[in-house]
Amino acid sequence: MASNNRWFYVILFALLTGLASSTFVPGDVFQSHGYTARALLQAKTACTVDFEHQNYTIITSQCKGPNFQAGPCCTALKEFACPYSVEISDDKSDCASTMFSYINAMGNYPPALFSSLCVEGKQGLDCGNFTSTKTSVNNGATPMPMMLTASFFMLLFHLF
């Protein structure tokens, strides 16, 4: 009697499993649905700025640990990065991740230090009121308000 109940439950399970599965595949599942706005795994273009040969003493002389202070570190980051705000904000290039890789390597900074210290709002760091002694490479264009937001998020996604 017990073996009959067992077979009954096995057959009932098989029938219910068969009814729960889909009996057809939509026709458009194998067709391309066009371009989507996400570019998570797409290759990025090489950065036009040579961050390898930049002078990082602006940052390394002002932003010192082990107790990193937001004021000096963020001011130094702005002084270094604001002239390149257009290039850093370009989502299609690897400028932001390249720049932060060299900053972290030259200063032996912990990962995501600047993204946790230097937060001015949703748009990232504001380079609009920042004056620099360097000549900007953006040819007089107004820096975008989101100039470093993309770089911080790209750094976070790159590291984690």
UniProtKB/TrEMBL annotation:
The keyword Metal-binding does not apply. InterPro entries: LLG1-like, LORELEI-like. Keywords: Signal. The keyword Signal applies. Residues 49-126 form the GPI-anchored protein LLG1-like domain. Residues 1-22 form the signal peptide. PANTHER family: GPI-ANCHORED PROTEIN LLG1 (PTHR31533:SF2), GPI-ANCHORED PROTEIN LLG1-RELATED-RELATED (PTHR31533). This is GPI-anchored protein LLG1-like domain-containing protein.
